[in-house]
Amino acid sequence: MKALELGKQPLTTVLEQHPMVADFVTALGFSAPDEHISLSQWLAELPDEALFDAGMERGQILDHLQRLVAEVQLMADRHAERIDSVTLIGGRDKSGRAENLELTFRAGEIVCIVGPTGSGKSRLLGDIECLAQGDTPTGRRVLINGTEPDDDRRYAPDRKLVAQLSQNMNFVVDLSVRELIAMHAHCRLVSAPEQMADTVIACANALTGEKFSADVSVTQLSGGQTRALMIADAALLSASPVVLIDEIENAGVDRRQALELLTRGEKIVLISTHDPLLALRGSRRLVIRNGGIAEVIETSERERQNLRHIERIDATLMDIRERLRGGQRIEEDIAWPN
Ligand SMILES: Nc1ncnc2c1ncn2[C@@H]1O[C@H](COP(=O)(O)OP(=O)(O)OP(=O)(O)O)[C@@H](O)[C@H]1O
């Protein structure tokens, strides 16, 4: 849209269709009249003192608003780009032996990464996070929708494809949970940020045993609450179609629900874990040895049946944990599910 065209539009329409223009007008302390005049007409009628106070020249404002609208549109277009697949092209292990493989992960898929300590699980997540192009110690390459990502995609912070939820997350801002999430929703151009924040918080509360209020400061959240909040935020608000998770065990988070929430958004989820509830939920798992992907195991039907059994055992354990938390004794004969 040209500056002239934006200027010709009725002011009320501009403010309605472009909330950031309304924010800009309010921030400068201008008040918009009710009558039906065009944006240019309204600018022409603004008193000189108002412009002086705002530190802007009359001619600059229309041009500035035009650029603002164009930039926000560009951001929205970028967020709408669809990622259907991520392809990993093998590199080499720590001894320099070739991995000789090409793996494609599709939207909605959960892939688990297993392997001993120091074997290279985080390195693999790191390669995907930076969309490696043979320029990391493993020599791996990553393709997006089957093609090599351009530098803009690799390095522009607002085009990040990958959200990484790391094990330790600390907030340094003193905002309430609602303020922080609403701020994120605002940046993501969600039309009702406060409402979206409430949805994210409700989701996070469904994931954690220790519920928290929207008004609590983020610095007061426990590790499990923080993790639940970040998972809900990544699932509902993040533009990143790929989510990498370095372990979510022992964090007081309902792991099954967390994964369901993440994959419902058609994201690709890669998770480094040895938790059977998570590792057997994935469609396949990558076995890492000596820095290389040594094996790719498809989850079998028998393993899925075992997963259901493990879930029942886990529910019994969770119940015992809850009772201990509530100060109860555990003295009965425990009936383990078959
Ligand atoms: N293919 C490789 N070539 C060279 N170095 C590698 C390779 N893979 C991993 N490494 C290096 O090995 C070290 C250990 O890897 P990493 O931290 O990824 O292991 P991990 O499996 O995540 O360990 P932990 O389970 O203890 O977190 C890192 O310094 C990493 O950069």
UniProtKB/TrEMBL annotation:
The entry's keywords: ATP-binding, Lipoprotein, Nucleotide-binding, Transport
GO molecular function: ATP binding; ATP hydrolysis activity
Domain of life, per lineage: Bacteria
InterPro entries: AAA+_ATPase (IPR003593), ABC_transporter-like_ATP-bd (IPR003439), P-loop_NTPase (IPR027417)
Entry-linked Pfam families: ABC_tran (PF00005)
ABC transporter domain mapped to chain residues: 81-316
Similarity comment text for this entry: Belongs to the ABC transporter superfamily.
Name of the protein in its database record: ABC-type lipoprotein export system ATPase subunit
Source organism of this protein record: Azomonas macrocytogenes (Azotobacter macrocytogenes)
Upper taxonomic lineage: Bacteria, Pseudomonadati, Pseudomonadota, Gammaproteobacteria, Pseudomonadales
